[in-house]
Structures are given as C-alpha cells and as structure tokens.
Amino acid sequence: MTINSKIFTTAQVVISAIMMNAQTSATKLPGDPTLVSSKSTLEKLISYDKGNFKYKVEDYFARPKASQFKISPDGKYLSYKEKDKDSKNHVFVKDLATGKVTKALVEKDDLITSYGWLNKKRLFYTQDKSGNENLHLYAADIDGKNLKDLTPFEGVTIGLAQIIKDTDYVVVTMNKNNKQIFEPFKINFVTGEMTQLFENKDPKNPIDGYLFDKDGNLRGYTILENGLTTKTYYKNQQSGKFDLIKSTDWKDTFSIMKFNDNSKNKDEAYVVTNLDSDKARIVLYDLKKNAVIKEVYSNPTFDVSSVSTAGKNRNYELDYISYNGIKNETIPVSSFYKEVDAQLKSEFGDKQFYVVSSDDNDSKLLVVVDSDKLYGKYYEYDTKSKKLKLLLDLMPQLKEEDMAEMRPIEFKSRDGLTIHGYITLPKAAVDGQKVPLIVNPHGGPQGIRDDWGFNPETQLFASRGYATLQVNFRISGGYGKEFQNSGYKQIGRKAMDDVEDGVKYAISQGWVDKDKIAIYGGSHGGYATLMGLIKTPDLYSCGVDYVGVSNIFTFFDSFPEYWKPYKEMVKQIWYDLDNPEEAKIAKEVSPVFQIDKIKKPLFVVQGANDPRVNINESDQIVKALRGKGFEVPYMVKYDEGHGFGKEANRLELYKYMLGFFAENFNK
Questions:
Q1: pLDDT tens profile 593-640
Q2: Is 275 exposed, middle or buried (0-12, 13-18, 19+ CB in 10 A)?
Q3: Residue whose C-alpha is closest to residue 254's, from 211, 218, 216, 213
Q4: What is the value of pTM for the model shown?
Q5: Which residue spans within 523-652 are E strands per DSSP?
Q6: How many angstroms separate the CA atoms of 467 and 406, rounded?
Q7: What does R_g of the chain's alpha carbons equal in angstroms?
C-alpha cells in the first residue's frame, strides 16, 4: 500500500490520516484471536502461486541492504540505515575523512520510523510501539551515546517537530496535557530540558496548527472553530498581539508554509491557497498587510503545494517548486538549482530525481533517482566539481528491462468528470494479450492520490502476468478543490462508480481478461474492496481487504481523543450519522450490513494495533461472513498497526496474496 501525503489545509492533512484508534490491552490480545486463520491455512495459499517466475516476493519486498542516506550539516559524515541478518535496520555513521563506520542507532523490536541530523554531532529518530503510532522523539550522539527519549510520556504522540538551526533546541508539538489537542514545547536535545511555549486552552475550538520562524519563535497559529472553520492568526511584531487575518471554510486552503527569509520584509511568507482559484497555487503573502504580494507558481490542471528554499549560505533563496502532475514535476528557480537541475537532467534523462539531503554549504548533494521501472539509486553530487558518484543501487536484483510500464491514463466517468489514473502493464498486455487485472483503490480517501513511479506491489503483480489499475477517483487530492469536493458524501457510491468506470476503460483498451479481475486495497482501499464485491459482484473474481473499514458506525465510534475535534469534518466527508437520511445511506454503504451480496472469495488482513482502522472493523466482516457459512482467510499480526512495516510480515502477506489471486484467477 502506498499512501502519499500532500499539503492542503492543516485540517485536511490531519483528516486524511483518520482511520481510527487502536484497541490495546495489557492483559489480552486485541480483537478476537479465535477468528484468525491458522498458519497452515494461510501457508496453503502459497502453493497456488505456481510458475517459472524470474523474480520472487523477496526481490521486491525484502528491505534494501542499505537505505536512507543523509549527509551531516558539516559534510563530514554520511549516515544510512543498514540491514543485519535479522532484518533489523540500524543507523550507521561513516566518517568521510577516515572511512571509520560507527553503529549509532540500534533498531530493536520496534521500527525506527524516521531519523535525521539535529546538528553535526547529534541524530534524532522517531519510534512507536508495535505500530500504535504514539510516536516518541529520541536523540543520540553519532557514536550512539547520550541516548534520550525527548518525549517520555505514555499514550502521547508528537505532531510537528522543527529543528532550530545552530542551537541545541527543537520545537515539538504533542498531546501531553490533553489527549485531544497538541501544544508546542521547546526541548534541549542534549539535556532533554523542556519548556512549554504556548497553551491550547479550548479543546472545543482548538489550535490545530502552529507557525514558527527559523529561530523557533511562534509567529502564528490556526484555530479550528466548531470543527468546520479555520481561523488563521498572525502575531503583530509591534504589539505582540495575535490578529485574525483569515477565516476559511475547512474545505478551502490557506496554508502558510514558511517565511521568505530571503526578503527584508519579515512578514513575507510562502502560502498555498485556493481561495480565489480551483487549483491550489503558491503565492508570496504579506501576513501583516494580509495581502498577496505576487503569485509564485500555479498550474491549470494540478494543485501546486511545495517549495524548497536554500539555507543561510545562500540567504534562503527559493530553489524550486515541485508538484505531482502526471509525473513529479520540478520547476527550478534559483541560478544554483537551475544549474544542478540541468546537470542532473543531462545525466538521468526522463527519470525522476530528488535532492534528499545536503550539507549546509550545498557542496555535497545526495540525490535519489527512480522511474516506473527503477526502484531507486542514491548518488552523491559534488556541486563544485560537477561530478556524480553512485552510492547504492537499492534493488540491484530488479533489472529495468524486466520491469513493467506504468502508463498514465485518462477517461470520462459516467457523469462526465475527467478521471486520471495509472495502469501497470506486464509485457504480455503490451504485446496485445488480455491479462488478469488487479484493481487497487488508494487509501485516504480524501486529499490522497496515486502517483507515477516505481511501485513494488504493481511490479510484483506484473511479474505474475497481472496488470494493476490505480484510479484517482473523485475525492482524490491534487486535481483541485472542485474535484475533491465532488467526492464528499460519495464514499462507497460515486467514488466507487469511478473505479468501476476505470475497469470498463481498461477492458475497452483490450488489456484485460474481463473474467479475471480482482480488487485489492488498504485503508479506504480495503473498504473499497468490500464495496466493490458488494456493489458490482459480477465484476470481480475475488478481493483482498487490507486494514479496511467495514462499518461506518463503529468506525466513527472508535475515534481516538486527538481526532475528536475533527469529527464535524468527517461527517461532511463521509456521512452525518445524526442525520436520519444520511445514516440510512451510511448503513447502505457499510459492508458489514450488506454481506449477503458478497459472493466472491475474500482475504482479510489486519494489524492488531492499528490506530486508524480498529481491528474490530476486520473482525466484524470476518465474523459476519463466516456466520453465513462463507469461509474467509484472515491474517492478523500482533506487532503491526496500519499496514505492515516489518519485513518478515510483509513477505508473508505478499506470498499469501499472490497465492490467493492465483487460486481464484485459475478456477
């Protein structure tokens, strides 16, 4: 499952993550363990995936030997994750002058979810417990010493984390004092000393976003009023008062990304907005005058929502703008980045590349290169000598010439909307044969979209001769607010029509064997799998529901404390269960109440500690179907959350899934 996050309003980003709270207990396993299929039942599925295949599951889903390279701020060290014999990904630091390598961070039972450099001598990393998403922030020296949990509180998670350059401090937001709301703290990442910076006093109308400048000063915040209105406040530098500068409906975007520190005007910032346009665009904005200075960039078809600026060494100038169009697009702005961009394009042609790390002087850049057929390669680029050095091919066993093409598609929905998406075609389909199809609706569903690039899932399926269809149905992000809004209160209905119309389009192109079509997805995609088997039971041969919602009513009831301020939004995105008419619709599109319509085989997969989709969602559908004599293989991992992160679990999942598809395509 690929879930991509984009910049919309703070509320939209938060709500895009909602798929609800985990059920945990110190005394018993989550959910109903008696429902889980035996190991032998699941292992039997593997036997159906027969064939003389060049590639196996491990080739796509075993972790790379090394990954996540980062350069230290002073350019003297290279850090990276390296996998050991037990598939643990520890963080190592290499002294570039001496070649000495030190194990800095040790991954034990729980995954190191992210890591990076705090300064030239200290690293940070984040970690939760078995996928529960209560993330803690840790810091350690580059030799692994002086390890500190900077947020050592049970049942608490962090939100924003912003390093204050050239100091020993980081600003972190967390729900320490009230589980429903987040407040900012300034933490010394050497000593662990902590100071609260601001109070979030009204849980009914909470602050849901904070704006800090590069020096760690609070300059603004957004309040979510009555769950539906976003009010943006900005600090007057003369009076010290926070003045209201914008009041917007939650569906609209006015998001302050960062200050323009290249300007002498200290009130100037880069803002993403669609208040006077359908597509999100980037503008320079004077926050004190509450006025647009000028438009920086816009696109007539796609939302634009990302800028990258230089550091202190180049006076924080704007380097480039980027957005997801049909492919990832980068618009170079600064003379420095125009030169870098031109050089890299001459080296890599039509492949995608991203600068993922640099030292403070931009003398060394770490670049990742990928495409639909290339998993990824890390390069070091010396901006003075203009020389590139290959650091690592992440998946050297996957040969580009053997990988499948990911082709952008566009079609009209039954009610006239232009729908975009992608289809990954195995060689047989390109050569004119009709092949089995796996339909893969994305998660979210709102504000999320599928992108072009290497996708291990679709490539694995292609290795078995299967095409994969990914439809950016209405409510998907990136195509403007009108398109996204058209999917609200259409989950399970018109959003599913778009998926079905995509299948019909793929059939019409001659790519697909209409008698061998499966549907599979995670999160909302798991829900869409269930609804696909219900709404169009004759279209699909089988389905795989991975951490999907089965009952909108219990889904709403399982909101964790820190999602409760957003409940009114969720009502507008999904359905208002307090409204009798909408509650009726919600019941009609809750799969657990429509199980008599499920006629085709179903495989259900769940992480027991999932904080987004409670295990009860999967338990319900499995129990209900088995209650009517319908056998359902059910895989649960008790050390996972919303999607499997551990290598061994992922390998099992895809082996079982391939067998399940093969069994049902060959009946």
A1: 999 999 999 999 999 999 899 999 999 999 999 999 999 999 999 999
A2: middle
A3: 211
A4: 0.94
A5: 542-546, 602-607, 634-637
A6: 10
A7: 25
